[in-house]
Design a protein that fits this description.
5 helices; 4 strands; Alpha-Beta Plaits; 2 domains; alpha+beta; single chain; 161 residues; elongated; 4-stranded antiparallel sheet; Arc Repressor Mutant, subunit A
């Protein structure tokens, strides 16, 4: 049962899963106001329809030894589709790059990079990023602290697909 529009129960399921990814189906069903079997069917339909793309654990980078987050503002020499695709393939190879966004405006690509320390980031910058074909320049901004980190999207009664 594929979904193209979301009802109130679907939105409640999505909101709950976004906030509590490890919730049991029984508890999810209670929060959604339905019984467990139809809740599981709805979750599977939401997965099959692409509303739910995957499930993840939110890890603490500092506890894992990643002391800095850097936003790399990348300027490219070419913006044609072939060169952009080559660059996108390359950045998927770099484990330090956690997010990549193609932008309009002054910055062509914004990369979120985690590193053990500034020296590790500089090594990545000089040996990998700046050495990559099509990269013209990189401006680096170090995150001082994270004031808000809320994965996902807002779920509200106006959401429709």
């Amino acid at each position: 049962m594929k979904r193209s529009k979301l009802d109130k129960i679907d939105r409640k399921i999505l909101l709950t899963l976004q906030e509590e990814g490890r919730i049991t189906n029984v508890d999810l069903a209670k929060k959604a106001g339905i019984s467990a079997p139809p809740c599981l069917r709805r979750v599977r339909a939401l997965e099959e329809s692409g509303f739910i793309k995957s499930y993840h654990a939110f890890l603490d980078p500092h506890k894992l030894g990643y002391g800095i987050t850097v936003f790399a503002h990348v300027s490219l020499t070419s913006h044609n589709d072939v060169d952009l695709k080559k660059f996108e393939i390359k950045i998927r190879e770099w484990p330090f790059v956690r997010e990549a966004h193609l932008l309009s405006g002054e910055t062509d690509v914004l990369l979120k990079v985690v590193a053990k320390d500034w020296e590790a980031y500089q090594h990545f910058l000089t040996t990998s990023l700046l050495a990559t074909e099509n990269v013209a320049a990189v401006r680096s901004s170090i995150a001082i602290r994270t004031s808000k980190l809320e994965p996902g999207v807002p779920i509200n009664d106006n959401l429709s697909a």
